[in-house]
Design a protein that fits this description.
By secondary structure, this protein is α/β, with parallel strands linked by helices. Helix content is 38%, strand content 15%. It contains eleven helices and ten strands. Keywords: Heme biosynthesis, Lyase, Magnesium, Metal-binding, Porphyrin biosynthesis.
Length: 329
């Protein structure tokens, strides 16, 4: 039996009907806010390529974090930009390095009211901009990098991170960090694995956000956008190594991968709506080509619908505040 008995439009007729039968919903706690703190700043600096996003001072970071927590976001993901860089990213593991200081600041500021996360990668701290240390040929040395990641994991845990975000895409990084954390007595600090991370052109605005020094690209360690099955292997390895959560990054161009991952793992799955995704929607809305608020909502719902339990987004505070106020987005 079909039309005219079956009329799917009946359930779309009014806003309450559409709300009642919605298959996917957002909640403030689903959202994680990525934040940037820069050592050399005396005042926050707006990012030109990401309108509304700032490089923070330590003080302005605390204010923005408190605002996000008050809005009900599920967590904060912190990135640090040091004043000085070197080949091995020394500032990443110094207790008084900007990222570790900022973690301590936020732990003191928000207490246990949110989940505090830190990006665990060397790219913000190295003078060459790669995610690891280089060998004598200028190639990223996987195993030498793991030694630095181990130190970084312990430093971030001691600074107050609940979760360390292994984002460098080195082989064995989850196991290395897990072992280092356990060895230092941080058995309760979780590993949030950037398990399927692609070498994407959509990271462009992020380069501005972290003052990236990168020359070239990261295709020898981040995944080829042409590959789908490869993500299953990457994710399985990370889960086997002890990942507590896994992430797909970027989000919108990789919803097929996200759906695959969500269907196969038994740990929480996240997706990162990255800088380029944010910038594209912002730019199109600024030009009047799309409805900004509807586009934000649609983009986030698409990521949830594909299987993400958690979404990292630069709109986290704004959207969480609207949801907490009972507004539809």
């Amino acid at each position: 039996m079909s039309y005219p008995t079956h009329r799917p439009r009946r359930l779309r007729r009014t806003a309450p009907l559409r709300r009642l039968v919605a298959e996917t919903r957002l909640h403030p706690a689903d959202l994680v806010l990525p934040m940037f703190v820069k050592e050399s700043l005396t005042a926050p600096v707006p990012l030109q390529s990401m309108p509304g996003v700032l490089q923070h001072t330590r003080e302005s970071l605390k204010v923005a974090a408190a605002e996000a927590v008050a809005a009900g976001v599920g967590g904060l993901m912190l990135f640090g930009i040091p004043a000085e860089r070197d080949p091995i990213g020394t500032a990443a593991t110094q207790p008084d390095g900007i990222l570790n200081l900022a973690l301590s600041d936020l732990r003191a500021e928000v207490g246990k009211d949110t989940v505090l996360m830190a990006d665990l990668c060397l790219d913000e701290f190295t003078d060459h901009g790669h995610c690891g240390v280089l060998d004598e040929h200028g190639e990223v040395d996987n195993d030498a990098t793991l030694l630095r990641y181990r130190e970084m994991a312990v430093a971030q845990a001691e600074a107050g991170a609940d979760l360390i975000g292994t984002s460098g895409m080195m082989d064995g990084q989850v196991a290395a960090c897990r072992d280092a954390l356990d060895g230092a007595g941080h058995t309760d600090t979780g590993v949030f694995a950037y398990a399927a991370k692609y070498a994407s052109a959509f990271y462009g605005p992020f380069r501005e956000a972290v003052d990236s020094a990168l020359q070239g690209d990261r295709r020898t360690y981040q995944q080829n956008p042409a590959n789908r099955r490869e993500s299953a292997r990457e994710v399985a390895l990370d889960v086997a190594e002890g990942a507590d959560l896994v992430m797909v990054k970027p989000a919108m161009s990789y919803l097929d991968v996200l759906a695959d991952v969500a269907a196969t793992v038994d740990v929480p799955v996240a997706a990162y709506q990255i800088s380029g995704e944010y910038a594209m929607i912002s730019a199109a809305a600024a030009n009047g080509w799309i409805d900004r608020d509807r586009a934000i909502a649609e983009s986030l719902l698409s990521i949830k619908r594909a299987g993400a339990q958690i979404v990292l987004t630069y709109w986290a505070t704004e959207v969480a505040a609207k949801l907490a106020a009972g507004q539809e987005i």
